[in-house]
From TrEMBL:
Main location: membrane
Keyword tags: Cell inner membrane, Cell membrane, Membrane, Plasmid, Transport
Domain of life: Bacteria
Matching Gene3D superfamilies: Periplasmic binding protein-like II (3.40.190.10)
Pfam families registered for this protein in UniProt: NMT1_2 (PF13379)
Segments of skewed composition (Basic and acidic residues): 1-12
Statement: the UniProt record of this protein carries the keyword Transport: yes
Protein name: Putative nitrate transport protein
Species name: Sinorhizobium medicae (strain WSM419)
GO cellular component assignments: endomembrane system
Matches recorded under InterPro entries: NrtA/CpmA_ABC-bd_dom
Keyword Cell membrane set for record: yes
Subcellular location field: Endomembrane system
Taxonomy of the source species: Bacteria, Pseudomonadati, Pseudomonadota, Alphaproteobacteria, Hyphomicrobiales
Region (Disordered): 1-22
């Protein structure tokens, strides 16, 4: 029997912890609104950076103090220890925190998504050469065929007694981990038995690939293109290939901070919403790329950032190119709405790969991590998608399909997980250590 059956149990974010923002006119004075925000040097921090650099936060009476960090574990800990007020976070991090997973799982909520897209999977040129031999790819294979060609390489290496491939992800509870696993499994590779997964901070992935410390990685922009431009990697799949609507980064904050500063939270969401709208306008992308390229932000070549924002990829050292439409979506299609159904998809992946177990308590904790009530309180009902108050299916519409054709029904998580043939090793995920 299915453990979880009622979609209505997360309708309208009712399982969320804390209270919604007070109505206008009843907000208490909160004093100076300086917000210290941690971020990792990735293009998907663009909305947060744009809010600080192009005046959107200032117009709401907020001073955004940006602090560049080096790893997701650092961001997690500095938010928990109150060195940050808010943080650029991986979309699964608040869910993991609510479930009590990982090191220092301090309560965290996400009232705002920073958009969709930006990830890709890159393999070393050596491994891709073997894939071409095994899979007869001809240089123009689709992402699923790439995964199946890699499966042939993995099987050949195992038969020859060679050690498994080492692939990098940025954090155990990350979209990168789950997307890489999903892609591998779709190609017939068991991520827990057939390869070795390790944690590599985003800015170090290209160097690690070049040094031979890893054979591939899944990471956010611009680091995939930097690896291909350096001639050390081949991009074999993007986030859009795996699931276009997959949640990527969010704004994370401590629930008690949000409850103590409801007006500040509301103003912040308004500022981020305006920054997201601005960042989505093609005519603004050149200015955005210049700011992102600065050393205090990403410290990456501005030309690469411009092309990444446009979805124009150099996928290999030979200069072959691919254009991915809507590779970055910062606002369109309600990209900033924190969907409870997406929090539950993240939970399903944690269960599938043995990071946690399926339970009513886990269901409710996962939903409570995303706070559509705070988003609604700041922007009003007109800013919400039509299905905001229901448990929408994920991957069920054209243009938003999963790579393997599965559809996620948040009311039938157990059936969804059982529909796969590849699961975590003995119910416990062991290859990726939390750091």
């Amino acid at each position: 029997m299915n453990v979880l059956t009622k979609k209505s149990e997360f309708r309208g974010g009712k399982l969320s912890t804390g209270s919604a923002l007070p109505a206008p006119g009843r907000i208490r004075h909160e004093g100076q609104r300086t917000i210290r925000a941690g971020f990792i040097p990735l293009v998907d921090a663009a909305v947060l950076i744009a809010a600080a650099e192009f005046g959107f936060a200032q117009r709401e009476g907020i001073t955004l103090e940006l602090v560049k960090d080096v790893s997701w574990a650092n961001v997690r800990d500095r938010l928990a220890f109150r060195q940050f007020d808010i943080a650029h976070m991986l979309s699964p991090m608040p869910v993991a925190a609510r479930l009590g997973l990982g090191s220092n799982p301090s309560p965290t909520i996400a009232p705002f998504s920073l958009g969709r897209g930006g990830n890709a999977i890159t393999l070393s040129t050596r491994i891709y050469g073997l894939m071409e031999e095994e899979g007869r790819l001809g240089g123009a294979a689709d992402p699923l065929r790439n995964a199946r060609a890699l499966e042939a390489v993995v099987r050949s290496a195992a038969a020859a007694g060679k050690p498994p491939l080492t692939l990098g992800v940025t954090y155990p509870f990350s979209s990168h981990n789950y997307e890489l696993r999903y892609w591998l499994a779709a190609g017939g590779i068991d991520p827990d038995r057939d390869v070795k997964l390790v944690v590599v901070p985003p800015p170090m992935t290209s160097d690690a690939l070049s040094a031979g410390a890893i054979d591939g990685f899944c990471v956010g922009a611009p680091w995939n293109m930097i690896a291909s431009e350096r001639g050390v990697g081949r991009i074999v799949a993007t986030k859009q290939d795996i699931w276009p609507s997959a949640p990527e980064k969010v704004i994370g904050m401590r629930p008690e901070w949000a409850e103590a500063k409801p007006d500040t939270v509301s103003r912040l969401i308004v500022a981020l919403d305006r920054a997201a709208r601005w960042s989505d306008v093609p005519e603004n992308r050149a200015r955005l790329a210049e700011v992102l390229a600065e050393d205090r932000h990403l410290g990456a070549p501005v030309d690469i950032i411009r092309r990444v924002l446009a979805g124009e990829f150099t996928i290999d050292p030979e200069g072959n190119r691919r254009v991915v439409e809507n590779y970055f979506v910062f606002h369109a299609g309600f990209a900033n709405f924190p969907r409870p159904s997406q929090a539950l998809w993240i939970y399903s992946q944690m269960v599938r790969w043995g990071q946690t177990t399926l339970s009513r308590e886990g269901f409710e904790a996962s939903v409570s991590a995303y706070r559509p009530d705070l988003y609604r309180g700041a922007l009003g009902k007109d800013a919400l998608p039509a299905d905001a108050d229901s448990g929408s299916l994920e991957g069920a519409t054209d243009g938003d399909r999963f790579i393997d054709g599965h559809v996620f029904d948040p009311g039938r998580i157990e059936d969804y997980i059982k529909s796969f043939t590849v699961f975590g090793k003995d119910g416990v995920q062991t290859p990726v250590d939390d750091v």
